[in-house]
Hints:
14 helices, 10 strands, ten-stranded mixed sheet, alpha/beta, globular, N-(1-d-carboxylethyl)-l-norvaline Dehydrogenase, domain 2
Amino acid sequence: xxxxxxxxxxxxxxGAGSIGCAVGGWLVNSGCRVLFVARPRIADAIxxxxxxxxxxxxxxxxxxxxxxxxxxxxxxxxxxxxxxxSQDTGAAAARIHKLYRNDVGIVCLQNxxxxxxxxxxxxxxxxxxxxxxxxxxxxxxLVTLKGNRIAIGRYPEGSDRTAELLVGDLVRAGFNAMVxxxxxxxxxxxxxxNLNNASHAITGYWxxxxxxxxxxxxxxxxxxxxxxxxxxxxxxxxxxPEGEPSPIRIREETAKLxxxxxxxxxxxxxxxEPRTYPSMLQDLMLGxxxxxxxxxxxxxxxxxxxxxxxxPYNRTLLxxxxxxxxxxxxxxxxxxxxxxxxxxxxxxxxxx
Length: 352
């Protein structure tokens, strides 16, 4: 159990989906006080009991859940962990601001790099949260979790006691967590990795399959290279200062994508292997009308336009995801080779 003197009073998981249930579930399991704010089906599953499963273990958790925050179920000492998709951050921040003072701790445990700026318009204590984990929740009562690395820091940089307490609780819960005063550089690095959420959603590839497919690895490397070129032109760091620890080294990881793999690797097709589906692919599988593409590939496209750097890979991915989500097209419309050929054609059409 956690020591109350070395823990936050309570964590509110605002927008508990797969990420919120995984993080919150482990926190509850370690003895932390957690309130989950979720859609009705997920809130019911949390209250009845749900499971968080990894390759090594499976825990069963019952949590306190609500579908809406109100003045009767908040505590001024709460630390609010926002886990909604980036396109919903503005609405979430507005709702939270109606209930809490502007000095409440707000932690953005989300993909993308715009959420902290949105939250800081209403709150004085905003924290960036880097998540190097993958979660799948196709049924409300089961979340599968892969990976356990998390970094927390103040926005735009720095650290404080709240960040240290949260990291302490995450470590006791089982995560490999760290405090990083350079968390936003780490989140930009994660954004580069997440650019290929769109590639997975379009091709229907899960992570294990893409890691074993040479055509997909080539596509992913090109998408990342384009993003890194834009960030380099903008002078945006994707690593902390030299000598500082970092759980993600995106340039090294991108270089590894170019290492040849054997196509006979049976992780590509074996039905018995675990499958990790990126969140955008899950959104399309579940027929959701919005995705985070505007806050991932869109960030690169907008920066590229401002700097005069062409972004045919990310622009094509963004346009395709918009069309697929708007018309309920399921993942798997193109193979990695077909998708790359379409993008190369778009690039040539732009004269780049």
